[in-house]
Amino acid sequence: MEIVVLPDGQAIGALGADAIANLLQRKPDAVLGLATGSSPLAIYDELAARCAAGAVTLGRARGFTLDEYVGLPADHPETYRNVIDRDFVSRVDFAPGAVRGPDGLAADIPKFCAEYEAAMAQAGGVDLQILGIGTDGHIGFNEPGSSLASRTRIKTLTRQTRVDNARFFEGDVDAVPTHCITQGLGTIMSARHVVLVATGSQKAEAVHHLVEGAVSALWPGTILQHHPHVTVLLDGAAASRLQLADYYRETYRAKPAWQGI
Ligand code: GLP
Q: How far is the CA of 182 from the centre of ligand 1 (A)?
């Protein structure tokens, strides 16, 4: 894992966007794994600005989103499909239909999940997966206790996640769906490069486990310690509980800029 501690969200956005821009230069039809949530917003904002300036194009790129609530009506503003369209897809130049996501209204959810996995494989697999992390250490919606080898499937959300996400449902935890479809930990592990973003002190404990804790289903993100190419982009607050923070800072400072992440 490469740990990069940056001064603020803007610096995180720029470095994350650099990684995607470099990938698209090498591989214009790259497959991106897209996460919703506040963590990746700085990257999306930066990519939208670069796209508007003509410096980056996603015209041949494809995308797969990580997760979706089960049962929300298609026009509900908080379906992850609508959130990712609003936050990112509609602001860049993806071709129509280039970004797919789990269908939270599928009649046969296990069948849909198998088809979603097959579609990702047929696209050649995810080249770069953007991730956030929940305060309980979940990635995607792989809650504590998730199988470390899981693939796309239905999951029950924890009370903690529903409380955390109630802010998007006018503070009403009962309005937050109880179930979701999420790519599994095994699915996420299949991506070639994972870029995980965490900011703020409320993520510090999850980040500590993610980077320095024992690999355990209790902190699902820890499976990423077994991935050969993970970059963790943090602000100082999210990095505040890392025992080796000084070492990570020193290592990144000494890295030649041309290497990127
Ligand atoms: C949700 C999403 C995750 C996201 C997490 C953190 O539960 N399913 O994909 O990473 O929340 O969200 P945020 O980035 O807003 O803190």
A: 12
